Amino acid sequence: MYPDVVGLRSFYAQPLGVVTRRLVGRAIRARFDNVRGLSVLGIGYATPYLGVFREECERALAFMPGAQGVTRWPSAAPTLAALVDETELPLRDGMIDRVIAVHLLEMTPDAEEVLREVWRVLAPGGRLLCVVPSRRGVWARTENNPFGHGRPFSRSQITDLLRGALFTPVSWGEALYMPPVSRHWFLRSAVAWERVGATLSLPFAGVHIVEATKQVYKPVATKRRSRLRVLQPVLEPALAPAGG
Questions:
Q1: Rounded Cα gap, residues 82 and 61, in angstroms
Q2: Would you give the DSSP letter of residue 143?
Q3: Kind of pairing, strands 207-214 and 167-175?
């Protein structure tokens, strides 16, 4: 079940949400470091992370699921956000170069169907970046943040989901090693938490950040035919006995 868009906007306006946007946004930007001349689509509630791309890319769009609701984005320019059915995106095949999915896969009732629709609109060579809550992290167990709602994923689960929708994972990362605590003195140490967690590869990060490419050709299993020839019995014609 999707959280309400008002609650999502409220979270990112609070100090904990501001720190979340900074830490997750840094990890997203590290993977999509150059989008010049490309089209970028954010789906779910990705607007907190799209601003850094808007002036650089050719086109930026924000699609928000109907069950969640939509908010205006950007606030001081013509809107680039739309309310959509996430399983039927209003785009032509292969017209998007980069997709950023945040607060999406853990909320939708059919994540594989959504990913197949994302696959349809991605161009050959296009890339998808998913931010999903980690089953092992504290954030998935705490309801004071959006990552504490919906279905969290293990690394193997999100890998299987992507491969089932014809995506190939190519890069992994984690973010939000700090606990989701809103105290100001704790938030000031957030960068140190991230640095230590990433350096030591600690297992309790709040989110997985996985980059995947569109798989254009689907492998098909074929059965090898036996080369042995099977001889079938053939009835030989026989001469009829001569009549008397």
A1: 8
A2: T
A3: antiparallel
**pTM of this prediction exceeds 0.90:** no
Rg over CA atoms, the chain = 25
* Confidence at residue 178, expressed as pLDDT on a 0 to 100 scale: 93
**Tally of CB atoms within 10 A around 232:** 5
What is the residue whose two structure tokens read 């490309």?
38
CB-CB contact of 128 with 212 (8 Å) = yes
Would you tell me the crossing angle of helices 15-31 and 190-200 to the nearest 10 degrees? 40
Q: Which token pair is 10?
A: 């409220």
d(CA 182, CA 17): 9
Q: How many CA atoms lie within 13 A of 156 on its CB side?
A: 0
Question: Per-residue pLDDT averaged across 189-217, rounded?
Answer: 91
As a whole number, the mean pLDDT across the chain is 89
Contact of 124 with 66, CB cutoff 8 Å: no
Q: What average pLDDT does the segment 141-168 reach? A: 95
Residue 227 in this model has a pLDDT that exceeds 60: no
Tell me what pLDDT residue 234 has.
43
- CB–CB of 79/73 below 8 Å? yes
Placement of tokens 């996430």 in the chain: 86
